[in-house]
Structure formats: C-alpha cells, structure tokens
Amino acid sequence: MRVWIDLTNSPHVLVLRPVIDDLRRRGHEVDVTARDFAQTLGLCARYGIDHTAIGHHRGERLPDKARGLASRSTALLRWARRVGGWPSGSRPFDVAIGHGSNDISIAARALGIPVATAFDYEWATVQHQINCRIADAIVIPDAIPFDRLDRYGARGKIRAYPGLKEEYYLADLEPDGAVLDELGLDPSAPLAVVRTPPEVSLYHRFHNDRFADVLHRLREQGQVVVLPRTDAQRVELREAGGFVIPERPIDGPSLVAFADLVVSAGGTMNREAVALGTPVYTTFDGKPGAVDDALIADGRLRRLDDPAQVTLAKRDRSGADGGRIRRDPALLTNRLLSATER
Q1: pLDDT score for 205
Q2: Reduced to 3 DSSP states, what percent helix, strand and coil does the chain have, rounded to the nearest 5?
Q3: Domain containing 143: what range?
Q4: Gap between the Cα atoms of 193 and 6, Å rounded
Q5: Rounded CA gap, 284 and 286, in Å?
Q6: What is the helix (H) or strand (E) element at residue 182, kind and residue range?
Q7: Is residue 39 located within the same domain as residue 160?
Q8: Rounded-to-integer distance, Cα 38 and Cα 233, Å
C-alpha cells in the first residue's frame, strides 16, 4: 500500500511519527508532505522524517486562511499527480492521512484517494466543516461525544480510540537529559515549561492577561523555558528578559518530562504533560473540549484562574514510571487505515 501523510503544524510531526514508523514496519510505502509553519519542518529534520515542503501559513485572518487553503490544496494535488505517475484511470496513493489537514483532504478527494483525518478538539468549526464532510474515516478520542460532530457530517465515519493521542505517540519516549544541557538548564533547580497562546488559531482569539502575570511569577521562582508560537512573541519575550527561549526545534517531550510544572494556553503540550505525569495548568480561554473537560474532572489537568495559584518547586519523582500511561500506536494506525474500507 502507498500512503500519503501531510503535516501542517508542529504537533502533527510528533503525533504521526510513530504511525509513519509503524506503516513502514508493515511494509507500506509512505510519502510525507509538510507545511512551512511554526517548527514543522525543523521537527521533521530532527526526527529524520523525509518530506517534501509545500506551502506556508498565510496569516490568521479568515480570508488569508481561505487563500492559503486553496493555494496549498492545489499545490498538493499537483505534487500528488507528479510523484504518483498518475496513469489514466488510476490514483497515485491508496490512502491520504492528516491530523486536521484540510489541504490534504481536498487534494486527495479531487484525486479519488480515500481520506483519514484525526483531531481531538471538536469546536474548530471551520476546519471540521471541511474535513469531516470529505473524510472517509474520522479518528478521535472516545471522550468526545459522537453527536457533537453530527453537524459537521461525521455520522458513520467516526473511529474512536481510548485515552489521549499523546499516550500513543509518547509511548516509546525515554526522556533524554541532553535537552537540559542544550538549553543550559540546572537539573537541580525548579523548572517550568510554558507554551504561549495560539494567537493565529481561529478558535482562540482572546487576549490573555493572566498569561503575562504567570510568566512574571514563574520567573521569580525558578528556571522558565518559554516556547513562543510566533516571531512577535519571541521578540517580546527576549525584551522582557529572564526566560530561556529555544532558538531551534528541541526535544520538547523530554523537556516536558523533566519539568516540574507546565503551563500552556494550547492543548497538545498540556496533554503531553498529563501523559508524562508532569503537573500542568491550562490557561486556554476558548470553548473547552470534551478531552480537557474529562482531564480536569479527573484532576489530571488544572485550570488556572488566578496567577497566585502557581507555585514552582521541585516535584516528587519517586512514583513508578511517574504516573505515565503508555498505549500502542498501532491502534492509531489501524484506525487511520480504516479509510480504505469504504
């Protein structure tokens, strides 16, 4: 089988890395395309994922996103025709897979290729109105009520999996202390890892004053590594001073595993911390999804309402495996390949 995988954002490299490895172990041929956005290309290089770079992020305004979708989908379609040979009456790939990539869904559907999409946040309405209607298989955590996706045209297409996607793609992680040396961090001192708000996401358009207060409070209590999402954020953090700001893609999961505390306004790093047993606060101000609601209800994720809640100190690591849950990525592979069963 020939499989096409598209990576459009940094977390997708981590999510689909073990799937790519599993597919190749099974003897399938895998081609990867990637968008030049955030650290996607750098992470592909770091994890040794051969890829073809196609397109870039066009901006946060809806018209810019629409132009970007049309432009990149067209470019992907042309690429797929070219690399696939495209003999008359056949298709170049047996299945196309993305994690919320509308681009690959549109291009693959135009070529008659079965499509699998995955996501774990159900309220990204614009994205899902396109993806769910096009896809043949929709792979989501079983914490999301299926009927929430009916309005997107997902009925009958859902392939659910137990737990968090992070428990699958981090299953083989053995934290590497080299990331601490790379960033000049002291293993004996308290360490916080902070991910800034996703300002360019359609589902998160809120100015988060708490976030700046949290950063200042953490800086007074220990080492703080901040992972900015945009160049503007990077400049602002440098000017503020007192933070460690990586200049290139790093081993993020290992850093989270070594951290004493994680604070993030997004979702992926929060759930990575949960999967790795690291205490974590969310400052997300958008509409909460079912996955985070369940984690908060279970006490595995804490909502940060007041910066005074935050205390940074060395944590107890004496528990067996640090409270981690490890799951087999082959299950995700099987769910994604079910798109070929249409």
Answers
A1: 45
A2: 45, 15, 40
A3: 2-170+328-341
A4: 28
A5: 6
A6: helix 178-182
A7: yes
A8: 12
Do residue 240 and residue 288 come from a single domain?
A: yes
Which of the residues in the chain have pLDDT under 50?
A: 202-206
What digits encode the pLDDT tens for the residues 1-52? Answer: 999 999 999 899 999 999 999 999 999 999 999 999 888 999 999 999 999 9
Strand order in the sheet with 2-7: 52-56, 29-36, 2-7, 95-98, 115-118, 137-141, 158-161
Strands (DSSP E) found in 252-298: 261-264, 280-282
* Domain count across the chain: 2
Task: Give the CATH number for residue 195.
Answer: 3.40.50.2000
65 and 36 belong to one structural domain? yes
333 and 286 in a common domain: no
Amino acid at 59: G
Q: Please tell me the pTM assigned to this model.
A: 0.90
Q: Is the dihedral of CA 265, 269, 275, 281 positive or negative?
A: negative
Q: DSSP secondary structure string, 24-81?
A: HHTT-EEEEEEEESTTHHHHHHHTT---EEEEE---SSHHHHHHHHHHHHHHHHHHHH
Both 43 and 155 in one domain: the answer is yes
